[in-house]
């Protein structure tokens, strides 16, 4: 049974003598390459930009570097439930849960919090499933890029890099669904 019309019937017909020479196909490919090269040198359709001074605009739902959000009072939203780690197809997330003490009421919103929270950016495929799975609206992907590092260990991002700074809040409102926004407004957790 056909579920979609995207399947393509592949033809197994024998190649002609001209096709077996490959030269016409190579010349055709070279022609396309030369046409694009000439266009970028002489035409106005230059495909490159002066990165990093110039950055291409990204779509609103661009999935880049994660942020662990705080609530209005500056408390970390994450409750170390582990759902993001379970759903992560790349097994990029690890965490250690801890119990909040009386003195930590203004640091963590829930009774349980992540004392350690790490994402391995080399494993992450930026699928956004962690964002979707989070019941506390604690983790979001942002339009920021993961910077280049010189060693593999530096790509394991801990809370120092993931939790938003109290005085440098990251606006994720464009990424939130209507349902999320309504639920956060109700709970005043925006
Ligand atoms: S974006 Fe996808 S791959 Fe990356 S940490 Fe989240 S769930 Fe895992
Ligand atoms: S980020 Fe969200 S899903 Fe992941 S452990 Fe924290 S509260 Fe749970």
From TrEMBL:
One of its GO terms (cellular component) is plasma membrane. The gene is nuoI. Its cofactor is [4Fe-4S] cluster. Keywords: 4Fe-4S, Cell membrane, Iron, Iron-sulfur, Membrane, Metal-binding, NAD, Quinone, Repeat, Translocase, Ubiquinone. NDH-1 shuttles electrons from NADH, via FMN and iron-sulfur (Fe-S) centers, to quinones in the respiratory chain. The immediate electron acceptor for the enzyme in this species is believed to be ubiquinone. Couples the redox reaction to proton translocation (for every two electrons transferred, four hydrogen ions are translocated across the cytoplasmic membrane), and thus conserves the redox energy in a proton gradient. [4Fe-4S] cluster 2 binds at residues 88, 124, 127, 130. Binds 2 [4Fe-4S] clusters per subunit. Its EC number is 7.1.1.-. Gene3D superfamilies: 3.30.70.3270. HAMAP family: NDH1_NuoI. Its main location: membrane. InterPro entries: 4Fe4S_Fe-S-bd, 4Fe4S_Fe_S_CS, NADH_quinone_OxRdtase_chainI. NDH-1 is composed of 14 different subunits. Subunits NuoA, H, J, K, L, M, N constitute the membrane sector of the complex. This is NADH-quinone oxidoreductase subunit I. Pfam families: Fer4_7 (PF12838). The lineage of its organism: Bacteria, Pseudomonadati, Bacteroidota, Flavobacteriia, Flavobacteriales. It is an enzyme of class 7 (translocase). [4Fe-4S] cluster 1 binds at residues 78, 81, 84, 134. It catalyses: a quinone + NADH + 5 H(+)(in) = a quinol + NAD(+) + 4 H(+)(out).
């Amino acid at each position: 049974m056909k579920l979609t019309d995207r399947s393509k019937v592949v033809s197994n017909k024998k190649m002609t003598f001209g096709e077996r020479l490959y030269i016409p196909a190579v010349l055709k490919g070279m022609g396309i390459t030369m046409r694009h090269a000439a266009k970028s040198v002489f035409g106005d359709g230059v495909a490159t930009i002066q990165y990093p001074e110039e950055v291409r605009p990204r779509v609103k739902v661009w999935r880049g570097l994660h942020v662990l959000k705080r609530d209005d009072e500056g408390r970390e939203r994450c409750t170390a439930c582990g759902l993001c780690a379970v759903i992560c197809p790349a097994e990029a997330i690890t965490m250690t849960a801890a119990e909040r003490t009386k003195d930590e009421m203004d640091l963590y919103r829930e009774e349980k919090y992540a004392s350690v929270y790490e994402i391995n950016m080399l494993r992450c495929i930026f699928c956004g499933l962690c964002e979707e799975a989070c019941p506390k609206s604690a983790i979001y992907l942002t339009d920021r890029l993961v910077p280049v590092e010189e060693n593999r260990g530096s790509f394991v991002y801990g809370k120092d890099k993931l939790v938003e700074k109290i005085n440098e809040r990251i606006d994720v409102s464009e990424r939130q669904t209507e349902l999320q926004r309504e639920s956060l407004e109700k709970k005043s957790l925006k």
